[in-house]
Amino acid sequence: MAAPPPKSENAYRTISEVAAELGVAPHVLRFWETKFPQLRPLKRSGGRRYYRPEDVALLREIKTLLHEEGYTIKGAQKHLRARRNRSKAPRGDAESAELHALAARLRRTAAELRALLEAPRG
Question: What is the architecture, at CATH level 2, of domain 13-118?
Answer without folding.
Answer: Orthogonal Bundle (1.10)
